[in-house]
Design a protein that fits this description.
With about 350 residues, this protein is mainly α. It folds into two domains: about 65-205, Formate dehydrogenase/DMSO reductase domain (Formate dehydrogenase/DMSO reductase fold), CATH 1.20.1630; about 210-345, Four Helix Bundle (Hemerythrin (Met), subunit A) (Up-down Bundle). It is about 65% helix and about 0% strand. The protein has eleven helices and no strands. The protein has helices at about 30-40, 70-95, 100-130, 135-140, 150-170, 175-205, 215-235, 240-270, 280-300, 305-335, 335-345. Helix 2 (about 70-95) packs across helix 6 (about 175-205), helix 2 (about 70-95) crosses helix 10 and helix 7 (about 215-235) packs antiparallel against helix 10 (about 305-335). The radius of gyration is 24 Å and the shape is globular.
Length: about 350
């Protein structure tokens, strides 16, 4: 009678070694599903090597990211929160003294609360993607300015508490009010960094499509963050003075977003094979939709449709963040992109 052997797939001889630590407790329920998403299909035959466009047997040289939709959503809510906190600190400074600036103080308070909600939601999305809160805390065991991911953890850890302190204490009297005022300015500094560091994080990689435009990606992310923060204010806040401020802030952000996105596409398409994801596939649809929606938001601002300005602007910024994520994965999956980019640089290197 045959007996079916039971195994956990690791088969460690405990007389020689033991599994310990965090990884030892992980169980894979469906081992093939993850591999099917990131790994190429097995060869049925050895492929022929082309002398024209030589690759590694036509297999991707890089692995695409394993991030879920939590990360593009984090780009959006974190960027909007960061830009809102920066605008809130500016309005807080502009409204110092005099009751006639009450509306600017109200706008500053709304910006702080957008920052509170956005930074808290961003932290939740990031922790959900990491799998457990302790992994977020582990990133803060070191302070490494050369690591965008490590600096991002510190920026987020500073933005959320200072925003909460500003939102709760800024209108108090005495020492608590002073602390609230200081927290508001500090949250503006953290907010500016929160709006842009994700652009540094995305482009600080070997993904071919972001290498040529790596200096413009932070500009694109900051501009998109400003546009999305202004769009949220257009949707949920009324007021003449506030409307003028958000109109100027949002219009500048949207114009900068369109210009920076165009520059990113131009630089990344200098090598046609590298820029191919901008022109075909699902990622290109998202990229073009982001440009169309942002342009539509600008058009709506000319005719005074503030609610539509907010809807189109927020949707454009959200599409842009998902497009960046999808374009990076498409570029990583292309087996010829990295080789084409490296060969294009050979003449310049002599």
């Amino acid at each position: 009678m045959a007996v079916k052997a039971e195994t956990d797939g690791r088969d460690i001889d405990t007389s020689l070694a033991q599994l310990s630590g965090e990884g030892a407790q992980q169980n894979i329920q469906h081992p093939d599903e993850h591999l099917q998403k990131i790994a190429p299909a097995p060869w049925e035959r050895v492929p022929q090597v082309s002398g024209v466009e030589t690759t590694y047997y036509d297999r991707p040289m890089l692995k695409q990211s394993v991030w879920s939709i939590d990360i593009p959503l984090y780009y959006f809510v974190g960027g909007a929160a960061g830009a809102a906190l920066t605008l809130g600190a500016a309005m807080q400074l502009a409204a110092r003294g005099g009751r006639r600036n009450r509306e600017l103080r109200n706008l500053s308070a709304h910006c702080h609360w957008i920052g509170i909600i956005g930074s808290t939601a961003g932290a939740a999305l990031l922790i959900h993607d990491l799998g457990r809160p302790s992994r977020f805390l582990y990133m803060m065991r070191v302070f490494r300015p050369t690591s965008p991911m490590n600096m991002g953890a510190w920026i987020l850890a500073g933005a959320a508490p200072t925003a909460i302190a500003a939102g709760l204490l800024i209108n108090r009297r005495g020492p608590l009010g002073t602390l609230g005022q200081a927290s508001g300015y500090a949250s503006g500094v953290f907010g500016a960094a929160l709006a842009g560091y994700t652009g540094v994080l995305v482009s600080n990689s070997v993904i071919p499509i972001w290498q040529p435009s790596r200096r413009w990606m932070p500009v694109l992310f900051v501009a998109s963050a400003a546009a999305s923060a202004a769009s949220i204010l257009d949707l949920f806040y009324e007021g003449k003075a506030a409307g003028r401020v958000t109109s100027v802030f949002g219009t500048a952000g949207r114009l900068a977003e369109i210009a920076a996105a165009r520059r990113v596409e131009q630089l990344s398409s200098a090598v046609p094979k590298v820029g191919e994801p901008f022109h075909r596939g699902a990622a290109s649809v998202l990229w073009k939709a982001a440009a169309a929606l942002t342009a539509g938001s600008l058009a709506m601002s000319l005719v005074g449709k503030r609610r539509l300005v907010g809807v189109f602007g927020a949707a454009g910024s959200l599409c842009l963040r998902f497009a960046v994520h999808a374009l990076g994965n498409a570029s990583a999956r292309d087996p010829k992109a990295s080789f084409a980019q490296q060969r294009s640089a050979l003449p310049a290197r002599g």
